[in-house]
């Protein structure tokens, strides 16, 4: 009876402790839910798949925390058009107002950054920043030369404009319509938006504010929130009044996934991973069972293919790279007086140049990297080729023929001559008479016999 009472008392204490902890947890959660937050997302550098993924997950996190506003701080030279459109889709679908802010002083929102700034509910810039140059050739569409600057003064004789290809005309027309629709949606300067696409024009923060490209010039985030407070905006078709008073600013930091994705989707890194994958599988192929090269090569190759799936690559360029590598390998195994090696080197370099289907800043493969890897690859297989040629004149060191040139001592038994070489006992014969104990050297093999001759004594 006493034991049962003690058990009931203990259960009661445990139950009370559990309820107490639940109460404390509920209070903490309630306090967190009542926090008024402004989520800060800082985007620096080229806009690529990792950037779009980071923004999407940050937006989801801000929605879960019921943030009042999202501040998208930009400092970018541009990027890939696919990543840019993904970010803009997220902004347009966001239930939370997104304030685009080009900062700090000295930053810029060029090319893709201009489109993103136009898509935000409120556009702001810090003093000493600029935006523009939104011609689509510069934001990750194929081909073409760099656009001419449209803000040059028309003085004297003008050069005839370069003829645009049909693909360039289509890209520019599509980009013009896209940025026009964003400008009309947000009630901003449509005429300048189109000139930023057609003529690659750029504006300073002050100029952008004067012609209503942006809504606010703010030197810092507190000043930005102060000016944005009370502004009326349209969020998913509904008019809202922005309330930014007494907000706590919480910055979203990139996690390991974003950093990892950012590294492997770098064009140069993806290119190097492709080469590591090729070399790893090649070494495993010529030396089966070593395992390490095969494992490293397979992982690197899969990572490279994943990165290429996210990047705008030219598959003809990738095919030329693989064809070039195949030719170089073939040269090492079946020499063709250098024709396969030269053809492979040319195909490899041309394919590497063609590989990235974009002129976006930060997403091309540097020429020095292409040349360096091409030289290393060709030099390696030339070394393999030279070793193969040198080995032709050497005696065979494996199999039955390995005994040729080796010495041994003759043993006569039952009218048969035997010789022990490298631990093996061979029946032998000779063109000259031999006696038991004579030292001999193997000349050649005839079936199961080795032909020997006596060692000349000095």
From TrEMBL:
Xref: Gene3D superfamilies: 2-enoyl-CoA Hydratase, Chain A, domain 1, Nucleic acid-binding proteins
Main location class: membrane
Residues annotated as domain NfeD-like C-terminal: 401-454
Protein keywords: Membrane, Transmembrane, Transmembrane helix
Bilayer disposition of the protein: Multi-pass membrane protein
Cleaved signal peptide residues: none
Heme among keywords: no
Pfam families per the UniProt record, alphabetical: NfeD, NfeD1b_N, NfeD_membrane
Domain NfeD integral membrane: 269-383
Listed transmembrane segments: 7-30, 260-282, 313-330, 337-356, 368-389
GO CC annotation: membrane
Span of domain NfeD1b N-terminal: 41-231
Highest taxon listed in the record's lineage: Bacteria
Biased composition (Basic and acidic residues): 149-158
Region: Disordered, residue numbers: 139-168
SUPFAM superfamilies named among the record's database cross-references: ClpP/crotonase (SSF52096), NfeD domain-like (SSF141322)
PANTHER family: INNER MEMBRANE PROTEIN YBBJ, NODULATION COMPETITIVENESS PROTEIN NFED
Protein name in the entry: Non-proteolytic membrane spanning protein, peptidase family S49
Species, as recorded: Coxiella burnetii (strain RSA 493 / Nine Mile phase I)
Upper taxonomic lineage: Bacteria, Pseudomonadati, Pseudomonadota, Gammaproteobacteria, Legionellales
């Amino acid at each position: 009876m006493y034991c049962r009472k003690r058990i009931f008392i203990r259960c009661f204490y445990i139950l009370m402790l559990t309820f107490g902890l639940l109460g404390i947890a509920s209070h903490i959660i309630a306090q967190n839910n009542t926090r008024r937050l402004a989520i800060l997302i800082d985007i620096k550098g080229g806009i690529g798949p990792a950037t779009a993924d980071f923004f999407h997950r940050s937006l989801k996190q801000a929605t879960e925390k019921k943030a009042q506003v999202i501040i998208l701080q930009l400092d970018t030279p541009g990027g890939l058009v696919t990543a840019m459109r993904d970010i803009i889709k997220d902004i347009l679908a966001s239930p939370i107002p997104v304030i685009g802010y080009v900062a700090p002083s000295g930053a810029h929102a060029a090319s893709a950054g201009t489109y993103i700034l136009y898509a935000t509910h409120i556009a702001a810039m810090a003093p000493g920043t600029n935006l523009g140059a939104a011609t689509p050739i510069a934001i990750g569409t194929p081909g073409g030369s760099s656009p001419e600057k449209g803000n040059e003064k028309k003085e004297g004789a003008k050069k005839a404009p370069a003829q645009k290809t049909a693909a360039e005309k289509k890209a520019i027309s599509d980009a013009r319509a896209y940025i026009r629709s964003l400008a009309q949606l947000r009630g901003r300067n449509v005429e300048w938006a189109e000139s930023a696409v057609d003529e690659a024009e750029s504006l300073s923060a002050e100029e952008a504010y004067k012609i209503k490209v942006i809504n606010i010039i703010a030197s810092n985030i507190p000043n930005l929130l102060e000016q944005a407070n009370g502004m009326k905006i349209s969020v998913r078709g509904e008019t809202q009044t922005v309330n930014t008073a007494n907000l706590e600013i919480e910055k979203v930091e990139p996690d390991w996934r974003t950093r990892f994705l950012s590294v492997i989707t770098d064009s140069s890194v993806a290119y190097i991973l492709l080469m590591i994958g090729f070399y790893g599988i090649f070494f495993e192929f010529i030396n089966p069972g070593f395992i390490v090269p095969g494992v490293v090569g397979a992982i690197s190759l899969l990572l490279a293919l994943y990165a290429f799936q996210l990047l705008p690559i030219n598959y003809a360029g990738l095919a030329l790279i693989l064809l070039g590598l195949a030719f170089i390998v073939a040269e090492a195994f079946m020499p063709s007086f250098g024709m396969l090696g030269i053809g492979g080197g040319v195909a490899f370099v041309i394919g590497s140049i063609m590989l990235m289907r974009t002129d976006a800043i930060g997403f091309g493969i540097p020429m020095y990297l292409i040349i360096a890897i091409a030289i290393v690859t060709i030099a390696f297989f030339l070394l393999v080729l030279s070793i193969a040629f040198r080995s032709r004149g050497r005696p065979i060191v494996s199999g039955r023929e390995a005994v040729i040139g080796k010495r041994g001592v003759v043993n006569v038994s039952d009218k048969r001559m035997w010789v022990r070489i490298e631990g093996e006992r061979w029946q032998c014969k000779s063109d000259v008479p031999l006696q038991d104990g004579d030292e001999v050297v193997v000349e050649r093999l005839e079936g199961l016999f080795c032909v020997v001759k006596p060692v000349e004594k000095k």
